[in-house]
Amino acid sequence: MAAPALRFMETQARVYRRTWMASAFTTFLNPVLFLLAMGMGLGTLVDRGEAASLQGLSYLQFLAPGLLAATAMQTAAGDSSFPVMAGIKWQKTYYAALATPISARDLAFGHMAWVVVRLLMATVAFVVVMAVFGVARFPGAVLAILPATLTGMAFGAPITAFAARLDNDYHLSSLFRFGIVPLFLFSGTFFPISQLPGWLQPVAYATPLWHGVELTRATALGTAPAFSPVIHVAYLLLWIGVGTVLAERNFRWRLLR
Q: Hey, which of 60, 72, 129, 233 has its CA 20 to 30 A from 35?
């Protein structure tokens, strides 16, 4: 990565240094509440009932790695959507940066590099919470940070490209309402995909979150993923690669026209 892109990432980090306390609180609080309510609350009922196979895991064990991947998706989506529009349309900080030796390409790559940093912050915090709940198994839980980060960038790169072309935030609101939220609920995070209607299962298989959940769960707990790990990784890298190319192109199109 070029030095100017790293400089822009540093700028993002300096801004975050003044606002980190609010996000750090929710970064730790959200997994605690989810694991308490769903993993230990609802989970006790699931473990007693005749639920579909959870690969020999308790519901808390099944849920935690899936939530790790889903949290990475949400973190990347949040940092790749409205902040990009703010930099282009509202605050116009990207235009100010172009007055320096930084190019539109550097802005795109620098922003995505910062998203990776944010993902590492969020996933490490989640793994710490998993350890507190007794779900994390060393070294699997620590290694699960990698597929979770890949999952986040499989959303972060395309959403960055999408946000760079928008003129208003209506489409971003629709993205979260009709994209991110349904994926969070129906991509294997809370229950196996086999419980979905037959016609909906192929749709779930096509989503990057399902691949990320499978890979993260397999890495954290040592379970067998649905497909070869190579297939899951390749699919996530495909989304990242296409999204990165489109983001770089859309930044140049939007900022230099």
A: 233
d(CA 215, CA 140): 11
Residue 188, classed as helix, strand or coil, is: coil
Q: How many domains does the chain have?
A: 1
Following CA atoms 16, 19, 20, 26 in sequence, which dihedral angle do they give, to the nearest 10 degrees?
Answer: -130
- Which structural domain, as residue segments, surrounds residue 188? 3-255
Query: Which structure tokens are listed for 170?
Result: 């209506």
**Residue 156 C-alpha from the chain's centroid:** 7
End-to-end CA distance of the chain: 24
pLDDT digits (tens, 9 = 90+) for 140-177: 889 999 999 999 999 999 999 999 999 888 999 999 99
User: Rounded to whole angstroms, what are the CA distances from 189 to 32, 71, 159, 204, 214?
Assistant: 16, 10, 21, 11, 9
pTM above 0.90, yes or no: yes
